[in-house]
Write a structure and sequence with these properties.
With 74 residues, the chain is of the alpha+beta class. It has one domain. Helix content is 46%, strand content 20%. It has 4 helices and 3 strands, in the order βααββαα. Strands 1-3-2 form a 3-stranded mixed beta sheet, sandwiched between helices. The radius of gyration is 12 Å and the shape is globular. The two termini are 21 Å apart.
C-alpha cells in the first residue's frame, strides 16, 4: 500500500471488506459508501461473482464505478 499509495481502494465483496475493516458488515449498509482504511478512502461494492449470480446487481455496481470515476477525476 505504501509503495502504490492509492487515492482510493475498491473493496469487492463482503469477504474483502470484512477482512480489511475487521468488522462484520451487511452489503446493503456499506455498498457505495466511502470509508476510511489506514488513512485511505475505501469504497465498497459487490464482488464480480455476485453479478454472475444476480444480474440485477449490475446497475448498482455501475453506479458505484461512476461515483468512483468522479471522485478520481476531482
Amino acid at each position: 500500500m505504501k509503495l502504490i499509495d492509492p487515492k482510493y481502494i475498491l473493496s469487492l465483496g463482503l469477504t474483502a471488506t470484512d477482512t480489511l475493516l475487521k468488522t462484520k458488515n451487511v452489503m446493503k449498509d456499506v455498498r457505495g459508501e466511502i470509508l476510511e482504511y489506514r488513512g485511505k478512502k475505501l469504497m465498497i461494492t459487490y464482488h464480480p461473482a455476485a453479478l454472475l449470480r444476480n444480474s440485477n446487481l449490475k446497475r448498482a455496481v455501475w453506479e458505484d464505478m461512476k461515483k468512483l470515476k468522479t471522485l478520481l477525476d476531482e
